[in-house]
Design a protein that fits this description.
- The chain is mostly helical.
- 81% of the residues lie in helices and 0% in strands.
- It has a domain of 57 residues.
- It has 3 helices and no strands.
- Helix 2 packs across helix 3.
- It is globular and about 35 Å long.
């Protein structure tokens, strides 16, 4: 990966974390925590979704949607683990 793609993944992940915090209201970790979850969710979505054959298209909007889905799933799983 080149620096530009890593930087883009961080920015998209931060935006996805913020969006996932809005979607999963009450399960977030605050602004900074949700941004970190979004970055991790974007990374995981980038690894797992193509292997599963799940694709939402190309472009920046599709990347944000992809990362947001990954971050929402990650927030849901963290919420489950945190509750038990």
């Amino acid at each position: 990966m080149v620096f530009g793609s890593i930087f883009a993944m961080l920015v998209i992940g931060a935006l996805a974390g913020w969006l996932s915090g809005k979607i999963m209201e009450g399960r977030g970790f605050g602004l900074l925590g949700n941004i970190i979850v979004g970055i991790v969710g974007a990374f995981l979505a980038g690894l797992i979704f193509p292997a599963l054959g799940f694709s939402v298209g190309g472009g920046i909007v599709a990347s944000i949607l992809h990362a947001t889905i990954g971050a929402v799933i990650l927030l849901f799983l963290i919420g489950l683990v945190k509750r038990t």
